[in-house]
Design brief:
By secondary structure, the protein is of the alpha/beta class. It is built from nine helices and seven strands.
Length: 256
Amino acid sequence: MLIIFHEAFHESFYSEDPYDNAAVPDRLVGMMDALRDQGRYEVRTPEPATRADLLRGHSAGYIDSIETRPLLFNMASLAAGAALLGADLALRGEPSFACVRPPGHHASRTSSWGHCTFSNVALALLRLRDLGQITSATVVDFDLHTGNGTQDVLRGWPQAQVLNPYGDTAVEYLGVLEQQLLRAPQVDVLAVSAGFDAYKHDLGAKLDTEDYFNIGRLLQAYAIRLGHQRRFAVLEGGYYLPDLGKNALAFCHGFE
């Protein structure tokens, strides 16, 4: 299991929105402390995505509009690049978790909302497809909110499906996810949008730390059923900072 991270992700000044929860100071400090010290995972450093990478999923006009805000563009390009690296590692048989910001699952081809900028997971999958390395993929988005941007960017690729499990309680949620994965087809790679805002002290107020381990383990089991075990995850939401690190660590322990 590898962690993908760049020290630039600790910087918070890329966002001009004072209500941008993904850009609050020190959001990723506790997470990286937990993953480095308690998880003892090796950390890989990503490079920014190129304009050609971004154009696979976004219009030129949308990319141009983000380029007018250089701090945001540079950070978002780096986040997309981290997802690209995760996808590459997955094809080599190395599972990974990319700790990034801004997130991406609400970024569509021509717009974005929910603190997102570029559609990180979708861009990574489109690159693998365009390079002829995969023809199919499953995306599991366990963020509290539906990954509508990922769905939009992958629209028109019928062999790529996006699963967004939902349940009113933790038991129901995990049951829905398990059933979705049991019905999921054989695909070339598993991608995960890893959001932690359904946590009991966060916006969703339903999942506990152990539940994130169980989510990771269900996803690992699906990857094992696929045979090749190609899988990678990219951070989306999660805003209760005191426990964000231990929740991410629990997920990684299940997913590794």
